[in-house]
Specification:
Blueprint: H1 2-20, E1 22-25, E2 28-29, H2 41-54, E3 59-62, E4 65-66, H3 76-87, E5 92-95, H4 98-101, H5 105-118, E6 122-125, E7 130-131, H6 140-167, E8 179-182, E9 185-191, H7 196-207, H8 212-221, H9 227-233, H10 252-259, E10 268-270, E11 273-274, E12 284-285, E13 292-294, H11 304-314, E14 335-336, E15 344-348, E16 356-360, H12 361-365, E17 376-377, H13 378-398, H14 400-448, H15 454-501, H16 510-516, E18 517-522, E19 526-528, E20 531-540, E21 544-545, E22 560-564, E23 567-572
Parallel strand pairs: 1-3, 1-5, 2-4, 5-6, 14-18, 20-23
Antiparallel strand pairs: 6-7, 8-9, 10-13, 11-12, 15-16, 16-17, 18-20, 19-20, 20-21, 22-23
Helix pairs in contact: 5-6, 7-11, 8-10, 11-15, 13-14, 14-15
Length: 578
């Protein structure tokens, strides 16, 4: 037993000796430090290593945060160092100066004066002449306060510089995929001829009716590097995670990001987001009126017309379905069940694959109270929609003024109603966000005054932050929707232009449907005056359901088909209440 105790005592002494000889060295640099060579990571490492060895430390552990501001509390290596200190295997921490440890004076005061002593850890700051092994330094709190003021002043100066540059039309963000910095004037962008065709391909395929998942799959199949991996291949460092195993692994979100960048029209958009404080790194979407938008600054990669068409089409949030054989029908994603709101799915007859049809997917899966299947044959559907498109284009060509007035009238009414609804929701979210800011500030003051303990402060802070993050996402979506509402009248003019382009159309195409139609409600077959009648509501792009006047020069839409053995079904363009 004595021998065991002796061995344990020897082991503990050895561990204590090892701990006393182990030191954590923490170099850090960020953009706010400018081009001060003495603060480079390499120079900090050299200085820290020399001083640690001179003080007799034999085990040196580096924790390096490169390019991260000292006001952030989630610095990766700083957090990792803190966790290692808690484990009790490190006896000291050394930094070049207090500003390297951090620029949040409240947090740093607590860290140096409470956390480190609590874990019996020696603290050394070379530039400030601080070594807690030689006693306390009563000026630590003052130095930490000065370091934080410096960070705030630098942030303020940078913001003022950005305001000036941003309002002059100089881009504040790096060029998106498809552009590079202009070699002759790095402040501006020029087209990257190597990948600009990929951007054009994405827009073209989306407008032809392909979904974002399909486009992503096709790009991966063709071994096209993702924007992140392409940038790294050119030596351009970007934040974010890379897929090193499959650098050509595109996903839907990346395609959507390309499709929503207005910069591809040649525009510069500054002040898209803002932060509430230099301490808070969360970016909050700016209201459109607070952005600085400059049109046609650089060479466009896609036309403005195509960009607007994509935004209009994306607003439909279509979800395309395919049958088991992988075929995508041009009506997929357009047909909607008016009873349950679900999409109609595309299928083929098991006995005769030449017969293809749509029916309600929710009815099939019994996932709703949808009472009927809403069955519709594709060949019947094609005849009806082509007849309605011909009637629409005839109206546009034969009665040009009446057509334009009708479309613009419908468009304005829809835009106004939609805008009022979204603006009301937007105002409510902004009001709640400001209320949360006030609550957070009061809570912060109460925490400093000791009225709220740290645990409760952390819990409430987390709840408020999560709610504000949700609000931020909703506001971002609503801002985009409101911007689309502002552009709807222009889009209505494009709709008129599109209708005229299809005046001589003899067959339907996926592009034609996507440009002219938002959705089609398909009702189940009804018995009306002894006839089997199927009712449709066609929602035209930017217009909705539009009643085309019964004018002399316009053709009638009269389609009847034997869709099942012995059953004739007639199409009705009117909304009939059974």
């Amino acid at each position: 037993m004595k021998q065991l105790k002796s061995n344990l005592s020897t082991t503990n002494k050895a561990l204590a000796t090892l701990r006393d000889q182990t030191i954590a060295l923490y170099p850090r640099i960020s953009r706010e430090d400018g081009a001060d060579e003495s603060l480079s990571i390499a120079n900090q490492k050299k200085l820290l290593t020399a001083c640690a060895k001179r003080l007799g430390f034999t085990k040196l552990l580096f924790f390096v945060d490169d390019g991260i501001t000292g006001t952030r509390r989630d610095r990766k290596e700083f957090v990792r160092m803190t966790e290692e200190l808690k484990r009790g295997h490190i006896g000291a921490v050394m930094v070049k100066d207090l500003s390297r440890l951090g620029r949040d004076h409240i947090r740093m005061d607590e860290y140096i004066e409470e956390f480190l002593p609590e874990h019996d850890i020696r603290f050394i700051s070379i530039g400030d002449g601080i070594d807690t092994a030689e006693g306390e330094d009563e000026f630590i709190a003052l130095r930490n306060w000065v370091n934080e003021r410096y960070s705030r002043d630098i942030s303020k100066k940078r913001r003022l510089t950005n305001v000036v540059k941003g309002n002059e039309g100089i881009p504040l963000s790096p060029p998106p995929y498809g552009y590079i910095r202009n070699p002759d004037n790095p402040k501006f962008w020029v087209v990257d001829e190597e990948v600009a065709p990929i951007v054009q391909r994405i827009f073209k395929e989306f407008l032809s009716g392909r979904g974002t998942d399909q486009i992503a799959g096709a790009l991966e199949k063709d071994e096209i590097l993702t924007p992140m991996n392409y940038a790294f291949s050119k030596g351009i460092m970007k934040s974010g995670r890379r897929n090193l195993e499959n650098p050509c692994r595109w996903n839907s979100s990346t395609v959507i990001k390309v499709l929503t960048r207005q910069e591809y029209c040649g525009d510069i958009i500054n002040f898209k987001t803002y932060s509430k404080s230099y301490k808070l790194k969360k970016r909050i979407p700016n209201a459109v009126e607070d952005m600085a938008i400059f049109h046609e600054v650089h060479t466009p990669i896609v036309s403005r017309e195509d960009f607007e068409r994509v935004q209009t089409k994306r607003g439909k949030s279509r979800k395309r379905k395919s049958p088991t054989n992988g075929e995508i029908n041009m009506f997929s994603g357009l047909l909607v069940c008016p009873d349950c709101g679900g999409n109609l799915g595309y299928h083929f007859n098991q006995k005769n694959h030449d017969i293809t049809f749509f029916n309600c997917t929710r009815y099939n899966r019994r996932k709703s109270d949808c009472p009927t299947s809403h069955y519709i044959r594709v060949d019947f559907l094609e005849q009806i929609v082509l007849a309605e498109v011909r009637r629409l284009t005839k109206f546009a060509s034969q009665y040009e003024d009446e057509f334009s007035k009708l479309v613009m009238g419908f468009s304005r009414k829809i835009v106004e109603n939609d805008k009022q609804s979204k603006q009301k929701e937007f105002n409510a979210l902004i009001s709640r966000d400001r209320e949360l800011d006030t609550l957070f500030n009061r809570m912060y003051e109460d925490n400093i005054a000791g009225k709220i303990d740290d645990e409760r402060f952390a819990r409430m802070s987390k709840a408020y932050t999560e709610e504000q993050a949700e609000i931020s996402e909703k506001v971002k979506i609503l801002q985009a929707d409101l911007q689309k509402s502002e552009d709807k009248e222009v889009t209505a003019e494009m709709f008129i232009s599109n209708v005229r382009r299809y005046t001589r159309a003899r067959k339907l195409t996926a592009q034609m449907l996507n440009e002219l139609i938002d959705k089609i409600e398909v009702y189940h077959i009804q018995k009306i005056n002894g006839e089997n009648v199927q009712v449709f509501n066609i929602y035209w792009a930017c217009v909705g359901i539009m009643q085309i006047p019964d004018l002399p020069k316009l053709p009638k839409v009269d389609v009847t088909m034997n869709t099942r053995k012995g059953v004739n079904v007639t199409y009705s363009p009117q909304r009939v209440i059974a």
